Amino acid sequence: MRSDGDSWSIVDSVGLTALGVATFRALESSEPDALVRDEFAPWFVAAAGEPHFTAMLADPTSVGDIFSDPSAALVSVRTKFFDDFFLSAAASGVRQAVILAAGLDARAYRLDWPPDTTVFEIDQPKVLEFKGKVLAEHEARPKADRRPVAVDLRDDWPAALEAAGFDPTKPVAWSAEGLLPFLPGTAHDALFSRIDELSPPGSRVVVDNYAGGGDIQRFAEAREKYFDKNLFGAIDITELLYSDERADPSLWLAEHGWTVQDEYPFELAARYRRTVAKLPEELADLSKRWIYATAVK
Predict the structure, then answer these.
(1) CA–CA gap between residue 100 and residue 199 (Å, rounded)
(2) In whole angstroms, what is the distance from residue 1 CA to residue 239 CA?
């Protein structure tokens, strides 16, 4: 269970979910028709040494058909969508990117950024320390000016971001991927207020959000009903999530002068020509509440 001020490494609590997503990206990358390629993901899984995920990577069939489960099948769709967002922002002239709760995201290394781009990665100190160590051991070189910012998103992260060289007078592209349900309502709403304050005209933001709010638990129960394997091992992700009252990101951004566009994961999957197994009706209905939102100021 979560508590105020709790922290984690990459092999426990919220950090373990980032490791799971990295495992899914690694498996996707090994497919001949992979939607995304992440050569760095297997490094992180191997270095973490977490038994469930190392076994999954060594033998994907150990947990059945991984990509028949929406938890894994849509990771590549989301990754592709967020990749495209950053590339589009860069093409429009934005030269600052901030990845909130960066986890094991390797976009500073994977994407072809313009040479004068700075990518800020915000996350827990232990997570960024692990990530930096693995990348250094493999002598990986980022394609942008990568700047880790070790700070909790429930704390005064704007001060830490500006101390790392962030310029609030220049347009910025923000991402909050796989983050929002892990924040309590007060920190969730403060996140968007701070993004707005730090974003001059021309800035962009992309988030994924479950519009069902308190239905997160219902979604988890329905998923357990139809899928007998927990792809995240022994951890119960619902115990890490918050369902308290919070603003709807799309509505909030629109009310504060941003132009917002909502996208839906299964529609994106079809656009990317990615087949996702048909879900039972109960799960399909709940899944429609997952939204990927982009906004321009």
Answers:
(1) 14
(2) 5
- pLDDT one digit per residue (tens) for the chain, 297 residues: 789 999 999 999 999 999 999 999 999 998 888 999 999 999 999 999 999 999 999 988 766 666 666 667 788 999 999 999 999 999 999 999 999 999 999 999 999 999 999 999 999 999 999 999 999 999 999 999 999 999 999 999 999 999 999 999 999 999 999 999 999 999 999 999 999 999 999 999 999 987 765 566 666 666 666 666 777 888 888 889 888 899 999 999 999 999 999 998 888 988 998 877 676 676 666 667 789 999 999
**Contact criterion met (CB below 8 Å) for 183 and 153:** yes
Name the DSSP class of 62: G
103 within 8 A of 130, measured Cβ to Cβ: no
Rg of the chain in Å (alpha carbons): 18
In DSSP notation, 7-38 reads ---TTSHHHHHHHHHHHHHHHHHTSTT-SS--
Question: What is the C-alpha separation between 178 and 294, in angstroms, rounded?
Answer: 14
Strands in the chain per DSSP E = 96-100, 118-123, 145-150, 173-176, 204-210, 259-263, 290-296
Contact 124, 56 (CB under 8 A): no
CA atoms within 13 A of residue 169's CA, in its CB half-sphere: 0
Report CA-CA distances (Å) from 8 to 16, 103, 122, 181, 251. Answer: 9, 11, 14, 16, 31
Structure tokens at 81: 């969508």
The three-state secondary structure class of 114 is coil
The CA distance from 14 to 169, in Å, is 32
Q: How many residues does the chain have?
A: 297
